[in-house]
Amino acid sequence: MAETAVASTPRLSLQCEAIGADTTTIRSLDWDRSRFDIEFGLRNGTTYNSFLVRGERTALIDSSHLKFESTWLPVLQEQIDPKAIDHLIVSHTEPDHSGLIGHLIDLNPDIEIVGSKVAIQFLENQVHRPFKSRAVKSGEELDLGTNPESGVQHRFEFLSAPNLHWPDTIFSFDHGTGILYTCDAFGLHYCSDDVFDVDPGAIAPDFRFYYDCLMGPNARSVLQAMKRMDALPAINTIAVGHGPLLREHLSLWLSDYREWSEGRSKGEAYAAVCYVSQYGFCDRLSQAIARGIGKAEAQVQLVDLRATDAQELSALIGEASAVVVPTWPANPDAELQASIGTLLAALQPKQWVATYDAYGGNDEPIDTVASQLRSLGQKEAFEPLRIRQVPDGNDYQRCEEAGTDLGQLLTRAKTIAAMKALDGDLDKALGRLSGGLYVVTARQEERASAMVASWVSQASFDPPGITVAVAKDRAIEALMQVGDRFVLNILREDNHQPLLRHFLKRFPPGADRFAGVATLEGVAAGGPVLGDALAFLGCRVQQRMEGPDHWIIYAEVEQGNVADTEASTAVHHRKVGNHY
């Protein structure tokens, strides 16, 4: 009798630990979560962290995901009667941190919610019940008074941190313990029983992946937030909203954020990717476009049309080399309409412009918006990105690839200059390095990609392993993170030209790379095997080393086969060493 497949129940658990004087964390551990937003694949689950601080009065910092309703609330009640919580500090209002706020208001209608002005506005539209609130901004404080048992005064200072990665974000610094609460910033999707960052080697790849996906597109905002942090007394712990808290190796993580953000903020040319917060799928789609721009080593700035004041909006749009905007509501409110007017007035004739569907349900038609953007004669950076359904992985990949195309437009002059700068003799000598010809393929749910590769080498015997150099702006790079699988298709000398021509051509964003190509599905776990390949290797990524313009991917080989033992591998001979 055949066995019936039964879907396993995701593992969810709670952890409650003291992290400082009068300070406790309640960590909701989501062990099996494999995706955060549809385009953000997770390999090690995630956590949702909240914090309880007791002075003379008590504050709770953030809540948890709604999926923890039946367990998180009882654990909180074991620690304190919810009616005894005086303040709820809301770092930002994304549902994974605010999912239980309505429950807390029901348990304690007198609780005061403390957050940024934008956060309070967002919550009014989320919880659909009245609540007491206090809007705060940088430099303002909340004094909980002195805990009678420890003698520690818990005085919170707030730091505005818009666009990290939502426009409503605030940081909270407890002068009594030296703990800085940052929610998403400095976090990572990594689930383990370790409360703190005791194993930096284990979490470093996820820390970098999280930064690249969520914080990198806001590098300028990251640096502004870090400037505000520099003015604080000594920080001994960063209490993040996801993953282990940062204490044991704090200087390392801060140094990484500063270095990465400074690298992304060099130069004056940047693309302004606009969005309307909490409208349709603007937030996620704009992040995918911005992430693609960043992969091309171009600068990018996310701009919220709803929350950015008119003067700053005008400067960000007017100084940008490219502007990407969403479709906005057909009947925008007065404040948003004013921002749209500011946006259109700030456009410059020589800018690149582009549009994408917000898929908000009542959008201004995308062709109307595109026409308005082109009214001053701007150049179109890419075809309007039309979203005709609730966005799936393919839509996000299409947005990311369009962003990469735009990023390459912005960095074209720099790329050409770099090619010309290399010494002629050195360039020719470097070009004499030869390699085989391969096509790397990968597929994950709705997303799939492929690229031609020649920088491939065997790297280990036991276990068998290879390295592949992948340019940072390759679409497939997002599918080759640690733990991901891919297929290395080895091309044969006597018939490689058709496959080479097919995979070397420039594909429009979101195009099916495998249309018209014979593939064997289900042969390898990582992606399609090309029917005309000489051989294939099924690989699993173990490590990634960052180079100036490439990622060096080390992968263990899990499976493989040869179609023709008598045939030879195609070889690639170059003439120069500064481009493919």
In a nutshell, what does this entry contain?
The protein is of the alpha/beta class and 580 residues long. Helices cover 28% and strands 27% of the residues.
Write the layout of secondary structure elements.
Elements: E1 12-20, E2 23-30, E3 46-54, E4 58-61, H1 69-79, E5 87-89, H2 95-98, H3 101-107, E6 112-115, H4 117-127, E7 132-135, E8 141-146, E9 153-160, E10 170-174, E11 179-183, H5 200-215, H6 219-230, E12 237-240, H7 250-264, E13 270-275, H8 282-295, E14 299-304, H9 310-318, E15 322-326, H10 334-346, E16 352-356, H11 366-373, E17 379-380, H12 393-421, H13 424-430, E18 435-436, E19 438-444, E20 447-453, E21 456-460, E22 465-471, E23 485-490, H14 497-504, E24 519-520, E25 529-530, E26 535-546, E27 550-562, E28 571-572
Parallel strand pairs: 4-5, 5-6, 6-7, 11-12, 13-14, 13-15, 15-16, 16-17
Antiparallel strand pairs: 1-2, 2-3, 3-4, 8-9, 9-10, 10-11, 18-28, 19-20, 19-23, 21-22, 22-27, 23-26, 24-25, 26-27
Helix pairs in contact: 6-7, 8-12, 9-10
